[in-house]
Amino acid sequence: MSSENESESRKLSSEEISREFKTLVSSNDLHSLNHMQHTILGRLQDSNAVLSHFNDFSQHCFAEISGDIARNTRVLKCVKSDLDYIFQKLRSMKSKIMATYPDAFPEDSMGEGIDRRPDLEMPK
Question: Where exactly are the transmembrane stretches of this chain (predicted)?
Answer without folding.
Answer: none
